[in-house]
Design goal:
By secondary structure, the protein is an alpha+beta fold. The chain has four helices and eight strands, in the order E-H-E-E-E-H-E-E-E-H-H-E. It has one domain: 2-Layer Sandwich (Alpha-Beta Plaits). Helices cover 29% and strands 25% of the residues. The strands form two sheets. Strands 1, 2, 3, 4, 5 and 8 form a six-stranded antiparallel sheet that branches. The relative contact order is 0.22.
Length: 163
């Protein structure tokens, strides 16, 4: 059984409800949820002329291998009505694998750790909340240290607490 850290996010529809639904579907299809971060609101990254995002990190125990897990997450996005269009554009839900233990893995389906994890404050902030002392397997720094070093200037606002 592996521990995987996922990021869920979206900026269309009822953002709060969509994160809750994503968590329920992840638990039903991908693995038992161990921990959820608080929910954070962040301005869009990349294409900035769109609604703000809600994001949350989900930690699960899973029996799925990386490719199976990513495929399952894509299916959950589809179940929730995600339509892929403009890259970095608005979406109901987006679910990505950030880390799976200390695994370094790349396939046509997924790359772990997530390639841009260390560049994005909206990812590092909720991840540091629930897994700040975990060592990034490529950079060999804790998530807290990566957050302190992050140059991303987008503000990230906590809007709920799970603590």
């Amino acid at each position: 059984m592996d521990i995987a850290f996922l990021i869920t996010g979206g900026n269309l529809g009822n953002r709060w409800e969509n994160l809750s639904k994503a968590a329920a579907l992840i638990e039903a299809h991908a693995g038992e949820i161990i921990m959820l971060s608080s929910v954070y609101e962040t301005a869009a990254w990349g294409i900035t002329e769109q609604p703000d995002f809600y994001n949350q990190v989900v930690s699960i125990e899973t029996l799925l291998n990386p490719d199976e897990l990513m495929q399952t997450l894509l299916e959950i996005e589809q179940m929730m009505g995600r339509q892929r269009g403009l890259r970095m554009g608005p979406r109901i839900i987006d679910i990505d694998i950030l880390l799976m233990g200390s695994l370094i893995y790349s396939s046509p389906v997924v790359t772990i750790p997530h390639q841009r994890l260390a560049e994005r404050r909206f990812v590092l902030t909720p991840l540091a909340e629930i897994a700040g002392d975990i060592i990034h397997p490529v950079y060999q720094k804790t998530i807290k240290d990566l957050l302190m070093d992050c140059n991303d200037e987008l503000s990230v606002h906590k809007i709920s607490s799970n603590n």
